[in-house]
Amino acid sequence: MPLFFSEDKRAALECLLFVAGGPVPVSTLAACLGLSSDDVVELAAELKTLYDEEGRGLQIREVAGGYQMCTRPQFANYVEAFLQPELPALSIAALETLAIIAYRQPVTRAEIEYIRGVKVDGVLSTLLSRGLVQEAGRKDAPGRPILYATTPRFLEFLGLKDLSELPPLDEAAAGKE
C-alpha cells in the first residue's frame, strides 16, 4: 500500500488515539491535525494497515463514529489477567433490557416492561448509571413518557462501529453470530 501522509502526521494521529482512551470523532482528529475529515479517514486507514501488516498487539478500529486504538482480541487473556474488568458483568435481566433498548430505540420504560413482562426500574437505573443508555426525549403520548436509547458507551462496550453492526434480530434470537 502506498503511503500518502508524512510519518509526522501518522505519528501525531497515533499519539492522539493513544492518549484518548476511547473513540475519537473524525471531526476532532481533523481539527487537532489540521487536516480535512477525508484526509483523517485516509490517514487512519494508513495507520491501521501499518499496524495490521506488522502484526502489532494494538490495532486501529472504527468505533462509535470515530477511531480508537485498542488491543487485538487474540491477546485478551493477557490483558484480562493484567487488568480488572472496567464494568462488572451485567445480569441477564440487564442484558435483556439493554437488548430491547438497542433494537427498539427510542423506547419507553412501559414498552420495555411490556416486552419483558416485568418491572425494569432497577435494571434501567443500573444501565443509566453505567452510561450504556440515556434519556432520548419524551414520547408524544399521554403522560409524555421518557424515551430511552443506547449511548456511544454502549457501542464502545460491545465494540461496534454503529447500530447497523448489531446482529439481525432473527439471528440474535436464535443465538447465532
What report would you give on this structure?
The protein is an alpha+beta fold and 177 residues long. The protein has 2 domains: 7-78, Winged helix-like DNA-binding domain superfamily/Winged helix DNA-binding domain (Arc Repressor Mutant, subunit A, Orthogonal Bundle); 92-166, Winged helix-like DNA-binding domain superfamily/Winged helix DNA-binding domain (Arc Repressor Mutant, subunit A), CATH 1.10.10.10. Helices cover 51% and strands 15% of the residues. It has helices spanning 7-20, 26-33, 37-54, 76-82, 92-104, 109-116, 121-129, 152-158, 169-174, and strands at 24-25, 58-63, 66-71, 107-108, 133-138, 146-150. It has a 3-stranded antiparallel sheet with strand order 1-3-2. Strand 5 and strand 6 form a beta hairpin. Helix 5 packs across helix 7 (121-129). The radius of gyration is 19 Å and the shape is elongated. 18% of the residues are buried. The model has no long low-confidence stretch (mean pLDDT 88). It comes from Neomoorella glycerini. Keywords: Cell cycle, Cell division, Chromosome partition, Cytoplasm. InterPro entries: ScpB_csome_segregation, WH-like_DNA-bd_sf, WH_DNA-bd_sf.
